[in-house]
Amino acid sequence: MPCSVESLYSGVEAELASSIEARRQSIVHAVDADAATVPGDPGKLHDALRNLLENATNYAPEGGRIVMSAARTDASHIVLTVSDNGPGIPDSDLPRVFERFYRVDKARSRGQRDPGGTGLGLAIVKHLIGLHGGNVTAANGPDGGAVFTVEMPAEESSKAEG
């Protein structure tokens, strides 16, 4: 079933509004017209995006900026991105962030503020996106901060049923 990307982004932002407001962070949505909908289970996609946005709000600085974007890379793929302007992820941790129970060194959080967590959030994201025939990757932005990229098939996948 086609899901509105803007509705997904607005929904997860509304769910996390109190922590976003408490940290005076701004959330920017940049959804290209040709990537306005993505096929999939809205509940599962919401949960995956919520985990990504929650991580971004935990690691972006007070008053920081988080960008949630969507673009079509070609006729068969849509890319959803959540990026923050926090300290980024140490290069040595990037290959492992989607492992269950793996937590990046506490020093990643600015001011030694440890947001807690079990190390399951990104493993859940990987699983939920995988159910849709998609893939998720983590990288550091060219100007710093973490960038999580979800690549999804633009057409309905029978895998999303699981």
Q: How would you concisely characterize the structure shown here?
A:
The protein is α+β, with helices and mostly antiparallel strands and 162 residues long.
Structure description:
- The chain is of the alpha+beta class.
- The chain has a single domain (2-156), classed as Heat Shock Protein 90 (2-Layer Sandwich), CATH 3.30.565.
- Helix content is 28%, strand content 27%.
Q: Which secondary structure elements does this structure contain, and how are they paired or packed?
A:
Layout: E1 2-4, H1 5-15, H2 17-22, E2 26-31, E3 37-39, H3 42-59, E4 65-74, E5 77-84, H4 121-131, E6 135-140, E7 146-153
Parallel strand pairs: 2-4
Antiparallel strand pairs: 1-3, 4-5, 5-7, 6-7
Question: What would the keywords be for this entry?
Answer:
162 residues; alpha+beta; two-stranded antiparallel ribbon; 4 helices
Shape: globular
Superfamily (CATH H level) name: Histidine kinase-like ATPase, C-terminal domain
Following the backbone from N to C, one meets helices and strands in this order, namely EHHEEHEEHEE
Radius of gyration: 15 Å
The strand count comes to: 7
The total number of structural domains is: 1
Mean of residue pLDDT? 87
Low-confidence stretches: 107-114, 158-162
- Termini separation comes to 14 Å
Q: Examine the coordinates and then state which fold CATH places here, giving the name of the CATH topology.
A: Heat Shock Protein 90
Characterize the main sheet.
5 strands, mixed
Enumerate how many helices there are, as a single number. Answer: 4
Which range best describes the helical content: under 10%, 10-25%, 25-40%, 40-55%, 55-70% or over 70%? 25-40%
The class by helix and strand makeup works out as alpha+beta
